[in-house]
Specification:
The chain is about 35% helix and about 25% strand. The protein has about 450 residues and is of the alpha+beta class. Strands 2-1-10-9-7-6-5 form a seven-stranded mixed beta sheet, with helices on both faces. A five-stranded antiparallel beta sheet has the order 14-15-16-18-17. Strands 3-4 form a two-stranded antiparallel sheet. The longest helix has 28 residues.
């Protein structure tokens, strides 16, 4: 191997723990540019005979948006891996998809206190999977920014970021069952996340997030966010068009620092069941739903039904359970998958793919225990080679929280993790690990050189 072409692995792992800044941009000008891009796209669609897209058009600048985020590359990789762990189930793929986040170990360049950007390695990789890289990196940054925004608004709540496709599959079939023809366009476009702000025993607050990423210019960000406004239009919680949302675009220039562009439709949607309905018991297993993909839209001439996904107030308790148990599945998939994950999923969500511990790239699952920053974690480790050198990565969950979820105790998990808010260590390294990321959900991801 040509050592001049690659940094020493020690230096690579050290840079993963460097905290750098990422610009956040939200303005009335951004909203205007996105509206212009939507108009341009709809004109082309009309010329093609397809008609305009259904969109949410009530977006505007984000109130009190942060000017920047301070992150380490390892935190971004942690977010990418957590999002992938349960979102693309296929036979034996859950945990393998999660470890796919490690492909970005050399993609981001972080100088302490400077702005985060693509590394030379990241720029070289554009030739091979440009679209995949922009999408996955964009999703990681979007989940971190959305969590930051919601947490700042509800500081006394815990905040969960939940893959929307996985959650929706608990009630609707997202694919064509006949195999003949395609589904209506609104059913093909969906938000990427639900963000849930919650307190134990209380109704959750929820909003939608649609994220995009591009290696192109800011003009492409405007086009992508205009398309994202159609993704959030497909899902409605409560009356039509009332659920708040965030549109987030990640600009990943090849030579300049990254930037996050964000717009919102403000508001509050609370999953409070009607009347005297008791609050949801999150320990209850879900049966697979078979709901009609219809949305009720009120107009001057009465109400109409259009394609889409809608959760009405009588189903709020059910949806609270869906969100909590989908998050539990994601956390269990992140720690190793298998039957502890399967118990939280319905058939359409991919339960059968986690019934057996058969995953690519792994041998033994959920058998690794590590003591990091004074906390015991249980999960799975992965040994691989980085530039020819053996490296160990570990993904896990605080042991007491893991035991709650392993035994199906979602209520207990949420009570304990909520009590731990603000107590998690924020150091990005530890004595035995080159880079460490600990999240408020109790998960940890760590990496170190492996002695030969």
């Amino acid at each position: 191997m040509n050592k001049d072409e690659f940094k020493a692995v020690n230096e690579i792992l050290h840079e993963l723990s460097n905290a750098s800044h990422v610009q956040v941009r939200s303005s009335t000008e951004l909203a205007a540019h996105v509206s212009e891009a939507a108009d341009d796209e709809d004109e082309k669609r009309i010329d093609d005979g397809r008609g305009p897209l259904r969109r949410r058009t009530d977006y505007r600048t984000v109130q009190a948006a942060p000017r920047s985020l301070t992150l380490t590359p390892w935190q971004v990789i942690h977010a990418i891996g957590l999002g992938a762990a349960s979102s693309r189930q296929g036979a034996g793929r859950g945990l393998a998809e999660h470890w796919g986040s490690l492909r970005y170990s050399q993609a981001l360049e972080a100088s302490q206190g400077d702005y985060l950007q693509l590394s030379s390695e990241g720029r070289d990789l554009l030739r091979f999977y440009k679209a995949t890289q922009s999408g996955e990196i964009g999703t990681g940054f979007a989940s971190l920014l959305a969590e930051n925004v919601v947490r700042s608004r509800y500081p006394d709540h815990s905040v969960s970021v939940i893959p929307a496709d996985v959650a929706l599959k608990a009630g609707w079939t997202l694919r064509s069952t006949s195999g003949i023809g395609s589904r209506p366009e609104p059913l093909q476009r969906r938000p990427h996340f639900f963000v849930e702000a919650w307190q134990p025993g209380q109704p959750s607050k929820v909003l939608l997030v649609s994220s995009k990423g591009t290696h192109s210019s800011v003009h492409q960000v405007h086009k992508q966010l205009s398309t994202a406004s159609a993704h959030v239009e497909s899902v409605h919680i409560g009356p039509y068009g009332t659920v708040p949302y965030l549109l987030i675009g990640t600009e990943i220039p090849s030579r300049e620092s990254l930037a996050l562009h964000i717009l919102e439709a403000p508001g509050t949607t609370i999953l409070r069941p009607p009347g005297e309905t008791p609050q949801a018991d999150l320990d209850l297993a879900l049966d697979q739903g078979n709901r009609m993909a219809d949305v009720v839209r009120h107009a001057e001439r009465g109400e109409t039904t259009i394609p889409g996904y809608q959760v009405l107030s009588e189903s709020f308790a059910w949806f609270n359970i869906v969100l909590a148990r989908t998050e539990a599945a994601t956390l269990m998939a992140f720690t190793g998958g298998g039957k502890p994950t399967a118990q939280y999923l319905t058939k359409e969500q991919g339960r059968r793919h986690f019934q057996h511990d058969v995953h690519a790239n792994t041998g033994r699952l959920r058998d690794a225990e590590h003591h990091i920053h004074g906390i015991d974690y249980l999960g799975t480790d992965h040994i691989y080679r980085l530039n020819g050198t053996r490296v160990e990565a570990f993904s896990g969950l605080k042991k007491s929280l893991y035991m709650h979820l392993h035994h199906g105790r979602v209520n207990e998990y949420r009570r304990e993790v909520h009590d731990l808010r603000g107590q998690w260590p924020d150091r990005s390294t530890s004595g035995k690990w080159n880079a460490v990321s600990i999240r408020a959900d109790g998960t940890v991801m760590a990496i170190r050189l492996r002695e030969e």
